[in-house]
Amino acid sequence: MVSILNKNVLEKLKKEKLAMLGLTIIMVFVCAGIFASVVAPNDPYKVDLTKKLLKPCAEFPLGTDQLGRCILSRLIYGTRTSFVTAITATALILALGVPLGMIAGYLGGWIDNFIMRLADIAATFPSTLLALAVVGVWGPSIVNIMLVFVVLWWAPFARIVRSTVIKLKEKEFVLAAVASGSSRTSILFKHIALNTISPIIVLATLRIAAVIMHVAGFSFIGLGAQPPTADWGVMLSDSRQYLTSQPFLLFWPGLTITLAVLAFNLFGEGLNDFLIPSSGDMAVIKGSDGKNA
Amino acid sequence: MLEQPVLSITNLKTYFYLEKQVVKAVDGVSLDVYKGKITALVGGSGSGKSVMSLSIFNLVDRPGKIIEGEIWLNGVNLRKLDEKQLQKIRGKEIAIIFQDPTSSLNPVLKVKKHLAEVIHTHHEGIGKKEALSMFRDVLFRVGLKNTDQILESYPFELSGGMCQRVMVAMGLLAHAHVLIADEPTSSLDLTTQAAILEELMRLKNEGLAVVLITHDLGVVAQMADDVYVIKDGKIVDGGTVYEVFQSPKHAYTKSLLDAIF
């Protein structure tokens, strides 16, 4: 972790223009989410039918929806729903996938085989189908949708961690550590785990974008967040009937989702170029241009 | 010779069981290593010298397996110990440095952390301050001057020679009596090579037993006290440097000597 928070690394990251753009957008979203109550001009849940479907004006910068709620405020509060879901889901995915990958890679043998076949199943199982099943049993909610992602999306993490661990296990410094008497746990955590962080970070960033998009998608078809929750997917879903008469009702949440997903993708891709220029694992500290002694 | 060897290997056999054949990487090697001496192990590529050094640590991975033989270190037969007991001896009694020093250190850990791990594994109950002064001492002993800066460096910020010295320092910190140097200089430039070899000489004079694995007879002539020539996993020639260089017994030793003189 230390190496990633290294000052040099941050300096270099600043040169990755697109990644920085992505990061800026992400930060704007995060700030808007955290300070939603301050930033939002209106109460996102306040229904006022006398003010429905207004054009943008001073009071409602992006206008109002079919129930007279402020669109901008709803978008801002929607950031909370989306980001909290996406980040929690990704954290849970990491918590499941990384240790499994590590165990598989380090121990090998039948355990490896067993975990990886589970990963194959998880990776090939259609997420929509599982979502429908889960929602059918436990009812539609954003938490259930999140669970679906956790159950299915740990596989790529387990795979990438496993392959990195296998590669690292053969490295001379691991051999040297064993030869100098380090214990198995010390080798796994100090020498191997620390070196797998960069691919994990990259994949996690890209995965957050995917979760945001999919959660919005499930909310749109009514399996995720339920109205009147301020959620981008729900807003999209609400706007369907007004597609021809009030296209902006659809446009704003659509644009917001696009922006958020784009931002995470840009940032993730930038991190990828920067952290793993040639899929090297020590690239984090070497930086993108080799040595920097 | 009346003195007891620190490390004594008898009839060590390490075979690799491949699908269609058995590769006898080490096939009945016996050798003695004495305190305060440099014992060279010379052989071409694939002669089994590296597998032998890994065998001492019981670090041969599948499909390789140590078939028989005894490895006596300070009166203890390492072959009779289990993994837990071996773990205590590795690094503490016997240390190894590898061919490529830059890849022998973990790229994401500072030198300080590497040394701290040695302390953590082999000397419990040492305070932070005391440890830090031990680090400085040991780095100074291996010829690194700017110790504070080096402690805070990542391996990639150091040169190959410096990394190799850090590796040696890790062995010294654990108070290893035997240092196995597996081609310690072949990836270094000439001046650094000379410096590292000088370091090994100094360690020898301090009383360490050094096993120098190399293919460079020039280095052997300059440094070693005893020399063993290994070919196809077998020791074909052995004795003091003078004996072997003056009257080589085996044709392979002769051809090696002819190649340089």
Q: For the report, how would you describe the main beta sheet of chain A?
A: none
Distance between the termini of chain A: 20 Å
Number of strands of chain A: 0
SS elements, strand count of chain B: 10
Strand content of chain B: 25-35%
Helical run tally of chain B:
11
User: Main interface pair?
Assistant: A-B, 26 and 34 residues
Q: What integer value in Å does the Rg of chain A equal?
A: 22 Å
C-alpha end-to-end distance of chain B? 30 Å
Strand arrangement across the biggest beta sheet of chain B: 6-7-8-3-9-10
User: What's the helical proportion of residues of chain A?
Assistant: 55-70%
How would you sum up this structure, described in words?
Chain A has 14 helices and no strands. Chain A has 293 residues and is mostly helical. The N terminus and C terminus of chain A are likely disordered. In chain B, 46% of the residues are buried. Chain B is globular and about 55 Å long. Chain B has 261 residues and is an alpha/beta fold. In chain B, β9 and β10 form a beta hairpin. In chain B, α4 runs parallel beside α7, α5 crosses α7 and α7 packs parallel to α8.
What is this structure's SSE topology?
The complex is a heterodimer of chains A (293) and B (261).
Chain A: H1 7-13, H2 17-34, H3 36-39, H4 71-107, H5 109-124, H6 127-138, H7 142-153, H8 155-169, H9 172-179, H10 184-192, H11 197-220, H12 232-238, H13 248-275, H14 283-286
Helix pairs in contact in A: 2-4, 2-13, 4-5, 4-7, 4-8, 4-11, 5-8, 6-7, 7-11, 9-10, 11-12, 11-13, 12-13
Chain B: E1 7-17, E2 22-33, E3 38-42, H1 49-56, E4 64-73, E5 76-77, H2 83-89, E6 94-97, H3 101-104, H4 111-122, H5 128-141, H6 147-151, H7 160-173, E7 178-182, H8 190-205, E8 209-214, H9 217-223, E9 226-231, E10 234-240, H10 241-246, H11 251-260
Parallel strand pairs in B: 3-8, 3-9, 6-7, 7-8
Antiparallel strand pairs in B: 1-2, 1-4, 4-5, 9-10
In short:
The complex is a heterodimer of chains A (293) and B (261). Chain A is mainly α and 293 residues long. Chain A has helices spanning 7-13, 17-34, 36-39, 71-107, 109-124, 127-138, 142-153, 155-169, 172-179, 184-192, 197-220, 232-238, 248-275, 283-286.
